[in-house]
Amino acid sequence: MSERVAAKRILVTGGARGLGAAIARRLAADDAVVFIADIAREEGEALASEIGGYYFDLDVSSEANWISVIAEIETGFGGLDGLVNNAGIATSKGGEDIETIEIEDFNRIFSINVVGTVLGCKHAIPLMARSGPGSIVNLSSIAALIPAAFVVSYGASKATVAHLSRSVAHHCAMRGYGIRCNSLHPGQVRTDMMNGIIERVGRDTNMGTEKAGEVFDGQIPLGCPQEAEDIANGALYLLSDESRYVTGTQLIVDGGMTLSN
């Protein structure tokens, strides 16, 4: 590997599985010091051991948890150079369109996807400003950019993350912190979360999971499946010095899905 983030201290939330795990592995392969933060301790500790990183228990919706983790990183490692706010959920117990949505589900999704991202930025920025320069990557989605009537809570939360990222970028630039902030927008990566969405759409439309998967795949202009590594490579770029002049922007990695919407 090219060591594009060598020695950079980078925290990845939701890093125990899915996209977070792929990002953690990619960063470690380029010699970053990777902190995996998650509520899945067994998986997180196993991954940390595999890549030579460090695991922290973190419920991203808890401000007390954030304060504790950031303090541990400062005490143990002296600073923070990168933050990937990846932790997120999409599942609901009730409906996901605007007429059947359960507000309890809406609030739960926002507490992880939005509040978790806000708290991550709030508590990482002061440490990054003292030890920087630094880079923040907030995981959004193409659901933030195109109508997503079948995942209205998730889409709204990710649109909020995209807007928040621009505000954070502007705040850090105006304060002279040397911290960049960008949003990263995956398309369809077959993580457990994406598979859950496909299964629910297949069930709700009576087309079945297999047919629903074919419909989703048919929306990708490049015509090939997207891999978690595609998103990890995008995060690597935004965290590396190669993107030193990139802030407040949206990196869309979707195989062209947004081109036809």
UniProtKB/TrEMBL annotation:
Segments passing through the bilayer: none
UniProt entry keywords in alphabetical sequence: Oxidoreductase
InterPro entries assigned: NAD(P)-bd_dom_sf, SDR_fam
Family under the similarity heading: Belongs to the short-chain dehydrogenases/reductases (SDR) family.
Protein name in the entry: SDR family oxidoreductase
Species per Swiss-Prot/TrEMBL record: Novosphingobium album (ex Hu et al. 2023)
